[in-house]
Write a structure and sequence with these properties.
The complex is a heterodimer of chains A (294) and B (432).
Chain A (H helix, E strand, L loop, with lengths): L3 H28 L7 H18 L3 H26 L8 H22 L16 E4 L2 E4 H23 L1 H11 L1 H6 L4 H24 L10 H14 L4 H21 L2 H18 L14
Antiparallel strand pairs in A: 1-2
Helix pairs in contact in A: 1-5, 1-8, 1-9, 1-10, 2-3, 2-8, 3-8, 5-6, 6-8, 9-10, 9-11, 10-11
Chain B lengths: L4 H21 L3 H10 L15 E8 L6 H20 L7 E8 L4 H13 L6 E3 L3 H13 L4 E3 L12 E3 L4 H14 L4 E7 L2 H17 L2 E8 L7 H10 L3 E5 L4 H11 L9 E3 L18 E4 L10 H10 L9 H20 L4 H10 L3 E4 L2 E4 L12 E5 L5 E6 L18 H10 L2
Parallel strand pairs in B: 1-2, 1-3, 3-4, 4-5, 6-7, 6-8, 8-9, 9-10
Antiparallel strand pairs in B: 10-13, 11-12, 13-14
Classes of the chains: A mainly alpha (294), B alpha/beta (432).
Protein name (chain B): Urea ABC transporter substrate-binding protein
Keywords (chain B): Signal
Pfam family, one (chain B): Peripla_BP_5
Chain lengths: 294, 432
Amino acid sequence: MDALIPQLLNGSAQGALLLLAALGLSLTFGQMGVINMAHGEFLMLGAFTAYLVQQVIAASDLSIPVALPVAFVVAGLFGLLLEVTIIRWMYRRPLDTLLVTVGVSLILQQAALQIFPSQGVPVEKPSWLDGQLNILGYEWPLRQLFTIVLAAVCVAALSAWLKYTSFGRRIRATVHNRDLAETTGISTRTIDRLTFFVGSGLAGVAGVAASLIGGTNSQMGAQYIIPAFLVVAAGGIGQLKGTIIAAWAVGVALSCFAYWTTGSLAQVLAFILVIVFLQLRPQGLFTVRTRSLA
Amino acid sequence: MFTTSKRLRALVATGAIGTTMALVLAGCGARASDDTAGAGSSAAASCVDTSGDTIKLGFLNSLTGGMAISEKTVSNVLHMAADEINTSGGILGKKIQYVQEDGATDWPTFAEKTEKLLTQDCVGAIFGGWTSSSRKAVKPVVEKLNGLFFYPVQYEGLEASPNIYYTGATTNQQIIPAMDFLASKGVKTLFLAGSDYVFPRTANAIIKLYAAKLGIKIVGEEYVPLDKDDWTSQVAKIVAAKPDFIFNTINGSSNVGFIKAYYDAGLTPAKTPIISVSIAEEEAPAMGHAVTGNYASWNYFQSLKTDTNPKFIQSWKAYPNSSGVTSDPMEAAYISLYLYKELVEAAGSFDVNAVNAAAKSKTITFDAPEGKVSLNGTNHHISKPGHIGQINANNQFDIVWASDKFIEPDPYLEGYDWFPADIRKQLAGAAG
């Protein structure tokens, strides 16, 4: 039991970061069917934004809260640019979006390598995240609690937005039946652009969280993209609650396996579990019922 | 839109399986590349053109992909050294004309580019590489084509190719001095944290043997894949094990994650210091203040007071694309080009066999920024001073310990009685 509590707590925090990385994908991949391999680089943009904000506002206590919305907008605008220039031509060709966005991700990586110091840049943690919380004898780093709270806020905001705003209703209508949505006067083009903006923006927020956990450098996006896709697929495409449960489960599995075996084996075991799960249940945890005839 | 979703999922799952497999197989990369090398043309007489007033040299560094983070600097410092040598008269009176190739963080590419540099560009020698996998991809090609390769990074040892010169530290010049330092501090318990690839695994095998001899107890050993930054679960084990010191063989960006997790868990250099073998002046700034106060074991530090170091630092700071700080791998790359110059001039020829003969029969030395290093003509490594530095608030290192003399290279640790022959064979086999 002593060993279980740290793994549950650490795993939940790992899951929360995965969830932050996967939230945007669950929109762009889940709702729109676009395989955006540059999503990890949007996360990287968010992390570099946190660094740049820190250059302007030196006090890290303030700069991280400021960086969160700024990173959302910066990564969102990059996403919007990608949608307007490239993705819009490929909505009926998901395989092509995959190839093109891999190219975009390489361009963004190399651009970051050219602009910033190659070893990466430091992002200082706010001092109010220093310290640990004693939970049943385990000194839990406060920073992990922050990741969980941030993920929870993002999930709440996103689901409220989808559920209660007119934009959200139009997005859901478009997902359920694009043609019918168009006949009711919804501009699906505007909806697509907006969805991509929000999805990419969420990657930016994830990037700020990631910059407090690991390195901020040109390569950082690569380690999140595959786990994030797996989480979305395992959760059930287009299903927010499925993504949440899958992210948490993968996080806890990673943490427990890392404790019982080694850090390397944990990666392999956790993702074998996901893949086996997808073999047994290819539609993921939850399925969306659509009225689409196609 | 959803008709394609099943195919999408299959695609994503396949991609994920592929990536996982690639990660698992990454360790075997060097083996795979041997095949690539074997497919090349047969060894031909050297086509190096020494008739003109220039000599072609090849620089092979990853300028794209994950390792560009580190290798770009090596490439830049090689260019700087070439410019310096050209200004002061060249090698045997010939100006260096370099061909820069991109290894692209892909080991078969390193093998292919080596073959291209040797057979098509006809270069006199190749300089570069960083990871052991890249060196092991280049090794069979230079051996088959009888070329020369200069490798500038500290590594796990257990290798001595007649066609490779090693200007970074082998284990007895970095790992063993670090352990001697720990013993001098009265350390009783040690925790090993490393990235999961050949260098940390081999280094830790050596550390465990030497620790047993020194009476230091290993209280834990953890590995995390190179491409993963989150160390929280493993650091929780360190907190529980309460070691006197942490021996850190983590590499790359993952090191930033480790230092952050270390700080977040409330560990401090005052109580649980870290000694690292891959955090240098270049890496420390990305880690922020959390790394201050911890230690690193290298041969060269920017803060070293030698006759030649100020000039090296000054030239590098003035160089375009400079990162502004000098570090051990950069300095070793700088040495490599000058060592080649010394070798060629001692041999009086650019011919590989003549160069190797000169290495054996003559004393080759170079006044390097770390001090006067001398080449061992048999194992092709160089003597180096051991230094331990403590990271200060400016991300520079205060030297806190130095070996009493230059340490002769011993890549197979044959001069250490605690290193059994069967383990040497086993580790050398595992390292490929």
